[in-house]
Amino acid sequence: MSATLTLWNKYMSKLVVHPEETVGMLIQPVLWVVLFGVGMKSLLGAAMPVAGDVYVTFMLPGIVALSVLGGAVGGGSVWLQERLSGVVKEYVAAPVPRVGILLGNALAVVTKSLIQGIVIVVVGVLIGAQLDTDAVGWLLAVLLTVGFAIGFSGIALAAASRIDDMGGYHSVIMLLNLPLLFLSNALYPLDTLPRWMEIGARLNPTSYFVDGVRQTVLQGGEAMAGSEVIGLGWCCLGVATFAAFGLAVAALAFRASLRRA
Amino acid sequence: MTPAAIAADSGRATDGAAATADRAVQARGLVKRYPGGVTAVDGIDLDIAPDTLFALLGPNGAGKTTTVSILTTLTPPTEGSATVAGCDVVGDPGAVRSRIGVTFQETVLDDDLTGRQALDFHGRLYGVARAERRRRISELLELVELEEAADRRVKTYSGGMKRRLELARGLVTRPQVLFLDEPTLGVDPQNRVAIIDHVLQLRREQGLTVILTTHYLDEAERAADRVAIIDRGRIVVEDTSAALIAAMGADTLYVRGSGDVAAFRASLAGLDWVQKSATSGDDGLVQLGVDSGDRRLVEVIRRAADAGFDVAEVSVAKPTLGDVFLRHTGRRLRDR
Fold it and tell me: Which partner for B13 in A254, B8, B179, B256 could form a disulfide, CB atoms 3.0-4.6 Å apart?
């Protein structure tokens, strides 16, 4: 556990050394929420006045999910960089559990995702999103974000352990980023999707994360007229399972990479 | 401080003392085969006593780094077994890791950290308590002469400074065994000497077993208590550096002077300890192959005087480890 904290501390301290990274981390979600949110709000608001705000509320968790995906890709990239430069050797030679090392990287991603999540919610409210929540709701939303971020970090770390060059890693991981957002209920309700997409969306952990945040923090998760919502219990279970899956995959890939060394 | 006092000071007294009572490193039949048929290590045995500076000398590709990887638990052996500081590398790798320090062949430092932060990170990773960490770090920064640069980012360090920092890092945890994998590779000559000096100084101050891999002959000769020559995955010969050289059996005496060269050479002709003699040029240089230059020097000078040959200067050329390597492997050990 102390290894995880030590590594987390090191990764977080880099935000101070690389201020441009911090600035980017904060500005990126703002841009997404504003540009996409205001645009869609205008589009839908032209049809019905309330629809714009309703959609902004609806799509806000999707922006958080996008931040998490981006953060996970970044975490994996850092991992690959450290593997290539040999820094990982220092971790591996130390008497610390392998999972602990991975968790240090994943938790740094989680931390950054949570910070971005706060920015997203604040900006979202400013452009019209409606909150409906309490302390328990916030807590659940945070836990969902933690679980979702660990899950995707795990997958990114697994890819970064198996692939040995930066270009290859980014090619593979790009498959995850936007497509996973589009193949979910983040931007459109589940029941509006054609059957094949609906199946994909139901298998996508992003959908569980997004619906979970809608129900715990935002008003009218079911707001998009009659759309079906995944039950909160299923959302939590889905995200938790995904987190465990991500870590397991990362641990296996890491061990395999050590045997190849 | 005596080694026992140091061990007690770091809080691992009885455990460490009992475990390393016999051997710091012991290996039997280590083999490492990679998929694709490469055999990097082909049956290596080692018996390294505590507080020894043990050099593994061999060319690139000989299996030095792979052997170190096995002993430091970074990679499992395909066959064979090894214990380091009394703990099994396969069965109890965590225990091995907590008792050793390693520096790797390539520099593995995080450029964003300062020197001090890098050492602190390492100490924290190994669970060294804060007060002990702080004390140890300032001692080590002083040892490797990096106090002034300690709070600058590693990115700004020269290659030699980085290697010295890595040496300090390997020692933060007060390891029982320190593995140095080609610690002076690619380092300028001044820093090469400094790094080895730091290691030797440390060993004088406290008990420490050091396993050093290198392809630099002078390092092995100067620093090592024992040298094992490794080639193509096997240990070809192992002994103290002096014993290996003495076993070569032949020194060369260069005698320069003026006078009756022929009579001088004649006086040496039938002796059983003179293996050959030759003159080079007409500048009065006589080159003698003898069994031991040190022992025969006085007699050679006396015989020269008796034969009417005035000796102006004499020098003894001893074989080097390079000659030892050549004798045992049939090839020259090239410096890179």
Answer: B8
